[in-house]
Amino acid sequence: MLKNKKFAFFDMDGTLIDSVGIWNQIDQKLIEKLANKTIDETTVQNDRDTQLKKFNAQPNPYLCYCQYLKDKYSAQISAEEIIKLRYEIAQDFLQNIIDYKPQADLVIKKLKAKNFTLAITTTTKRTNMDIYRTLNKNINAKAPLDEYFDLIYTREDVSKIKPDPEVYQKAMQKFNAKPEECIIFEDSLIGIEAAKKAGIETIAIYDKYSDTDTEAIKAQADFYLHNYTELLSSIDEL
Got the DSSP string for 37-48? Predict the structure, then answer.
């Protein structure tokens, strides 16, 4: 699956790091503050995924999502204030709780040792990525992003988010890479769809928060792994 590949592009949330569930917890706390209600995790995630997909062509899909929360829960503050509150709630999670998925840091190190060019191609906001890069204690203790990745593209670097392939097209252009030289790691269906539209082979990494799309992911991805441990021997054989 990695033979003749030179470039590896990684999604961030749910792929490299265990964070999708964290964002559910963050949004649960946010809704509690807005409406004094406790909403189950599944509803929180489904609402967020639906709204972000709906507004993926907007300049700031997360602001649209916060407007949706304001309307749904009759919040007394503006969407701009809600997104600021969400960011404040997220700080402790981003700095101290979020961590690499098991063996993801080892995969990064092994690929780098095999002279792969590595990139992060995510729809995560740059402010969050900057925290992961500089303040997250778990990530920096294991494999600091700036040390191993040659390029980091975030939400602000593209006009359209996944499933639009723009972020992958820009990464290929940056490296003057051909699709057949690249491999993409993704956990979500929209990420796999974006990769396929860019004409790049994909390795789907299992994430429990994508369970509802598992069969579609398996059908569209070129390879499907339950965890990063399954990849280690393939790297060693290169």
Answer: ----HHHHHHHH
Question: What are φ and ψ of residue 8, in 5° steps?
Answer: -120, 120
Cross-strand bridge partners of residue 17: 13, 100
Angle at CA of residue 60, ends 186 and 206, nearest 5°: 15
DSSP-derived 3-state class of residue 87: helix
Q: Please, which pLDDT band fits residue 56 given cuts at 50, 70 and 90?
A: confident
- Please say whether the dihedral angle defined by the alpha carbons of residues 85, 89, 90 and 92, taken in this order, is positive or negative: positive
Read off the pLDDT of residues 10-50 as tens digits, 9 standing for 90 and up: 999 999 999 888 999 999 999 999 999 999 999 999 999 99
- Walk across the sheet containing 201-205 and list its strands: 151-153, 117-121, 7-10, 182-186, 201-205, 223-225
